[in-house]
Amino acid sequence: MKVLKEKILREGKVLSDTVLKVDSFLNHQIDPAFTMDLGKEIASRFEKDSVTKILTVEASGIAVAMATGLALNVPVIFAKKKRAATADPNVYTSTIYSFTKDESVDIYVNSRFLSPSDNILLVDDFLAQGEALKGMVDIVKQSKASLAGAGIVIEKVFQGGGQALRQSGVRIESLAPVSSLAGGKVLFEN
Amino acid sequence: MKVLKEKILREGKVLSDTVLKVDSFLNHQIDPAFTMDLGKEIASRFEKDSVTKILTVEASGIAVAMATGLALNVPVIFAKKKRAATADPNVYTSTIYSFTKDESVDIYVNSRFLSPSDNILLVDDFLAQGEALKGMVDIVKQSKASLAGAGIVIEKVFQGGGQALRQSGVRIESLAPVSSLAGGKVLFEN
């Protein structure tokens, strides 16, 4: 997605060979109109897949997931991190490890929001080692719903998570696949 | 907001005299088109206030904040909970206590996203004791930006947070002010 790549080059900051900071428009401050365009683009890549629901994980995937859900006219679920006091005992859970935060966290989805007749599209802002995506795939499997695939805003291809998930049969559409951040320079795969 | 109140009566579950569960459309599963309507309604109540940015706190305020930002055509910032490894040292922070989760958490906003020339609208899904809102007001004060007010989807008026904040001069617009959950019944203030 050309406008996204241009925005990354203009506003993104390469903090190390693995860390790309895009907090001015994606995961701390959001540009709502631009986020709607990201959602429309993800939706267009899955428009023939009869998606019934979108699943993301809190927090930074929510805005793009909502934009995608609006474009596909389907509900959006965000998996929550750790059990809240008001949560139902009836939940699907998975444990994910965040390399950025160096901590493991449990994510959960109330089981009444996912059913075997659903066809789920996963949406997230970043794909790196793929931990969050693996956790969501795990939850979809537990629910016996079908998995349409995953729509990702920025994939750091060189960190391997996407490759492993594709090899396991998950269709992944990345709007901006980054092949390298070496030397402080953002290179895109295509 | 009539359609919101009807949706609360239809889909909400009163779990106790203080807990109203609305996870089917507001804070776990989201109805994107309905969320857009919530955002438009909040925006309409502040349309003459020259809002320059919206501030919410992750995670469940993000969808409504984005819808409001889209309607007002301004950026949305979501305060993050606790410091991530990639965060800038240059941040405004505040500590908030969650009665629901029985834990304190630090929220922070990168200081470059708020400036004294900004006029900030706070947005959140719930207002109960007002802890999250107080934390956001604190952050806005630190930045020396102006505060336009707060747009809230559901205010549990009987828990007093809104009253305390209004007395301190904060304008609060609640789309569904709940006066009581006693006896498993949702009563609205007006």
Order of strands, widest sheet of chain A:
6-7-5-4-8-9-10-11
**What is the residue-averaged pLDDT of chain A?**
94
The number of helical segments of chain A is: 5
- Apparent shape of chain A: globular
Distance between the termini of chain A: 10 Å
Q: Which structural class best describes the helix and strand composition of chain A?
A: alpha/beta
Largest interface: A-B, 39 and 39 residues
Order of helices and strands of chain A: HEEEHEHEEEEHEHEE
- Largest sheet entry of chain A: 8 strands, mixed
Helix fraction bin of chain A: 25-40%
Our estimate of the beta-strand percent of chain A is: 25-35%
This entry's quaternary arrangement is homodimer
Radius of gyration of chain A: 16 Å
Protein model, in words:
The structure is a homodimer of 190-residue chains. Chain A is an alpha/beta fold and 190 residues long. Chain A is built from five helices and eleven strands. In chain A, strands 6-7-5-4-8-9-10-11 form an eight-stranded mixed beta sheet, with helices on both faces. A two-stranded antiparallel ribbon of chain A has the order 1-2. The mean pLDDT of chain A is 94. Chain A binds chain B through residues 15, 19, 21, 23-24, 28-33, 35-36, 58-60, 62-63, 66-67, 69-70, 73-78, 80-81, 84-86, 100-102, 109-110, 113, and chain B through 15, 19, 21, 23-24, 28-33, 35-36, 58-60, 62-63, 66-67, 69-70, 73-78, 80-81, 84-86, 100-102, 109-110, 113. Strand 5 (76-81) of chain A pairs antiparallel with strand 3 (29-30) of chain B.
